[in-house]
Design brief:
The protein has about 80 residues and is an alpha+beta fold. The chain has 2 helices and 3 strands, in the order E-H-E-E-H. It starts with a strand and ends with a helix. The model has no long low-confidence stretch (mean pLDDT about 90).
Length: about 80
Amino acid sequence: MPTATLRIESADAANIVATVGPEARRDLPRTHVEICLDRDVAVLSVEAADTTAMRAALNSYLECIMITENIDSIAKEST
């Protein structure tokens, strides 16, 4: 069973965990995902039944993280 752990060091780590957390709690076929905050680091853990499911899960979560960071950046620029 493939596993991956991503550690995202970011000033927005708490926002990433809060935003991605509800997605991680959803039941997805062939994957199990957890996300937590470890100091200022968002830690995303993914277990998948196969490499295809792993690729799909990582693509999805990385896109969500990128969008979260982009929104935070835009919000900071407008204040």
